[in-house]
Each structure stands twice: as C-alpha cells, then as structure tokens.
Write a structure and sequence with these properties.
The protein has helices at 3-15, 20-27, 98-118, 192-195, and strands spanning 32-36, 45-52, 58-64, 80-83, 128-132, 140-149, 157-166, 171-174, 178-180. By secondary structure, it is an alpha+beta fold. The strands form two sheets. It has a five-stranded antiparallel β-sheet. A four-stranded antiparallel β-sheet has the order 1-6-7-8. The longest helix has 21 residues, at 98-118. It is globular, with a radius of gyration of 16 Å.
C-alpha cells in the first residue's frame, strides 16, 4: 500500500473513533492479526495502528518504532499490512496460558459492551498499540486483541494485545503492550503515522 492509502485507512478508523456502535460492527470482523517480524533488530518497540481499507475491512499497520519517524525514507518499506482475522472460541490450543486466554476471550465476549462504554471516557478508544520488540521471539507471531481487568479504568477493563510466538514445538504468550492514547507528551513525535491522520 502507498503511504496515502495507509493514512486514508487510518483516517477512516479515526472518523469512527467516537462512534461506539460503528466500532463494535468493525471489530465483529475479527480479534487477531498475524505478523511476520522484520527490521526489529533496530527497534525497542513495534507500533500497531488500526485502519479501515476501501472495502470496509479492519486492518492493522505494524511498523518498528525506529522507522515510525518523519526522517524515514520510503517508510512504506517498513510497514506490514496485517488484515484482522476471526478467532473462534474453542478453536484449538492457541493460547495455553490461562490468563492470556481469558484476556483474549474477554475481548471476544465483551467488546460489544466495552467499546461503547470506553468511547466517551477520557482516553477514548485506542489509536495504536506500542508492543515491545522483545515480545517477538519467533519469526511468526499472532497478535490477539484482549481486555484485561483494571480497577482504575472507568470501565473496569483496559484494551490490550497478547503476542503469541509460535514455532513447531512451543507457544509463548506475552502481555507487555500499551495503548495509545494515553501518550506522554514527550512521545508525540514517536508516532509519526498518527501525525499524518
């Protein structure tokens, strides 16, 4: 995709960011995306931005944070386009860690009520995720949308992602991601793609 197509998709997502019902309909399309890591050797984190393509499909744009700057030449070379996919409950032992599985199931079961409740809060709906690069231990990972319990959150839940590293013998799940917003003022220049929306 071109940078214009990417930012157009991000703008389409941003256009419905305050519409809980439209977001619920959008997230009915799926709860995870697969990402094949690349360019991670130079980044501490990976940024994942939701967008809506011209067919109305939810997609995530994933870029190593090191390249998510205005000084990156040919930035689209570092952006992976990851379509959302639908994970069915009981569809296999994808996440063997009980807590990770509960968080992912909580998204699947509760996103339709959580999103409309989250939209009017101070931080609103997420515009991106910051995921530590150390979570990507294998060449192929699955990034599941999740909800974790957080007493301090207005809704009692907070959006999250669970990164599952998969190889032929083992599955590892991690949960160290942060949503954007909130975003510290000192980091506003670190999310270049958001500045284009």
């Amino acid at each position: 995709m071109t940078l214009t197509e990417i930012t157009t998709a991000m703008k389409a997502y941003n256009n419905i960011i305050n519409d809980g019902n439209a977001l619920v309909e959008l997230y009915k399309q799926g709860s995870y995306f697969d990402y094949m890591k690349s360019h991670l050797h130079t980044s501490d984190n990976v940024h994942a931005y939701p967008g809506i393509n011209d067919k109305g499909e939810l997609i995530f744009f994933v870029i190593p944070s090191h390249y998510d700057t205005s000084s990156t030449t040919d930035i689209t070379n570092y952006i992976a386009v990851c379509p959302i996919q639908h994970w069915l409950l009981g569809g296999g032992n994808v996440l063997p860690v009980l807590v990770a599985q509960e968080m992912c199931e909580r998204w699947i079961n509760d996103y339709e009520t959580w999103i409309p409740a989250q939209v009017p809060t101070t931080n609103g709906m997420f515009l991106a995720f910051k995921i530590p690069a150390e979570d990507f231990e294998t060449s192929t990972v699955r990034v599941n949308l999740a909800l974790k319990k957080r007493a301090a959150a207005t809704t009692g839940l907070a959006a999250d992602v669970v990164v599952t590293n998969m190889n032929d013998t083992e599955v590892y799940s991690y949960d160290f991601a942060h949503t954007v917003p909130p975003m510290p003022q000192t980091l506003t220049n670190s999310y270049y793609l958001l500045s284009l929306v």
